[in-house]
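Re: the 209-residue chain
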Amino acid sequence: MVLRRLLIAKGRPRAVQRSLKRAIDICGAVCGLIMFAIPMLVIAAAIKLDSRGSVFFRQDRVGLDGQLFQIIKFRTMVPNAESLPGGITTWRGDPRVTRVGRVLRDRGLDEILQFLNVLAGELSLVGPRPTVPSQVRKYTGHQRRRLTVTPGMTSLPTAVARNQLPWPEKIELDLQYIDNWSLWLDLKILFLTVWVVLTTREGSFKRDF
């Protein structure tokens, strides 16, 4: 039902709409960085006091047209967690997640640094969530359409189910987003994402790094 209500406008974005989307991204990222400036300092201090290692986590992700970029987040796991059992997937109760990391993941606060990726043009506020190269190499030709738009801080799958869906279903929802894109759809996804994160906290750990 939620999905049907969201996907009401069809048609690929025109050049003017793309330019307006980019302008909204820049304004949203600047506002986000200003709004979260003090919380980010508090988060950085909490991470440093809670566990050893860097405050930040960087990882290669696949962006528009298959281009690699480094996504930036607040570190929520022990150092070198990817090399430990579990690999790049996390789950509720994952012992690699730190105490502060659990709080950040529940509220999505580990990802607010991605406003910097938005300013750099590597991310949009809304778009398919960027994934790691090893997963992209498994895409079918149909699924590679997911790489034809700029990835986002949040996405249609995040808005309707947060992180509870398996990857094939997430990809299909992303393709529906691409086929039905509109600025109005982006705004609805942004609003619903905030609502889901603040009220349900569902699926916080069933995701990649």
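Residues 15-35 form the longest helix (21 residues).
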